[in-house]
Fold each of these.
Amino acid sequence: MDIRCMSPMIILSVLLVYFAVLFVISLRTSRNASNQSFFQANKSAPWFLVAFGMVGTSLSGVTFVSVPGTVGASHFHYFQVVIGYLIGYFAVAFILLPLYYKHNLTSIYTYLQHRFGMRAYKTGAVLFIVSRTLGATLRLYLVINVLQLFVLDAMGIPFAVTAIAILLMILLYTYKGGVKTIVWTDTLQTFFMLLALVVCVGYILHDMNLGLAEAMSQLSDAGYTTLFNFDVNDKRFFLKQIIGGAFITISMTGLDQEMMQKNISVKNVGDSQKNMMTFSTIMVLVNFIFLFLGGMLYLYASSKGLDVKGDDLFPTLAMQHMPGIISLIFIVGLISALFPSADGAITALTASFCIDVIGMNRDETKTEEQRSVIRKKVHLAFAGLFLLLVMYFKIQNNKEIVTILLDIAGYTYGPLLGLFAFGIFTKHAIKDRLSTAVCLIVPTIAFIIDKTSVHWLGGYKFGFEMLAVNGLLTYAGLWGIRRTED
């Protein structure tokens, strides 16, 4: 029995109960909430909860759907990137976290003000806001679209109603408590996401009457378990993916306000480092399970005579070719993957805009209550912006546009990488008025290099390592505008 055979009221009731649990957690954690608890959870968040909850934030609903689908075309090559992630997490834990705690930062981009000046600081914050807004709304749209196509269209619920309802839910449980609430809700949601993952793996193994050893043997025979790609000109060449994965982690975790906002909510740097190392270990294991699931989904589809692949693989099989209870668990898992990637983004964007762009904390004339009013207005504004962008992506309904926007979002982290690297590894000051120009010119140069590399570099195609190229070019540009008297 597939999900379409289940009563719509059962599905909606489960989702409403799920949200009610989140809302109860919000009520309990947001008592006596202040701006400090919204932005930093009063630096009292338990490190182990932060570590577990960050898994859901890092994976997102797109990972939940897409990573299993990649196995058909690229086998287990994605694990090369995961190895790079692990290297990157070590760099974040032992280079960046001590820096953030040393300066007692609420917004990590304040470091750029201390190091270079106001222009570099504002540039770094705006780069984050643009990138995170695009990335978070794209992930939100893609997951809402899966729910819409496989469940809600059959109930006659319009896409706009779905998008508004989900954003309202996120607002209701983050509006007051912020990070203090998210630390707990993300932990719960990560648990449900991983539960869905394990249940789906278990069901397939049971249905195909396979043990783990037999399953791995069949995956190996089908060629799915190939880990390393040794074609230097391929985007999935192992060194490209490992290096790229490391820089993705350093940039998109270590230099990302959303991810670091949770880490610096922990009491001290030692506990924060334990959080990062625990989180990275869990991430490696979970990503391997996703790849294992992907391989099993392809074997399962083949055994049923089904021709489905890519992003459609997991949702199609889970919701149309498995028992209704498994389909329902899949939906809960998908929702659990969706919320952490959106709730943390809205909260982090609110924090960055309030602190970095409008300088709320620098204005000593404003009372705590006035700052709270400003923060809530900004929070609502970002939720509205998320809704507009999600609706825009739905109207366009063009995968090429999604790809282009994701590429643009990726390029914004390169300049951030260069700015922080130059600040950490040199003692030079820069001509701050020129820092914005460098951060705008560099992605343009990198884009041209990326598009012409096949012609000029003997067939070489850039992959994830383009992020490092962006960072290196930014570093070189900052070297060019350094103050020579230093």
Amino acid sequence: MWGADAVNRFDGIFAFAVWDSIERTLFLARDHLGVKPLLYAERDGLIVFGSELKAVAAHPAVGDDLDGTALSDYLSL
């Protein structure tokens, strides 16, 4: 009904994912202030996401290797 614009109607902290199996689309959203974390990694067409870094890093496709540039960008923001 509202689609992606639904997040503009939400108050509070949130992070969620919606998979549309008919359209084969994934929608990830988090609160406007970024209070609730939503982390993700993409490897070879696979998307892994979670609310904690250790959850994402625990997936075998992601692992715990670090991209120095990405880490620098993350810490600078």
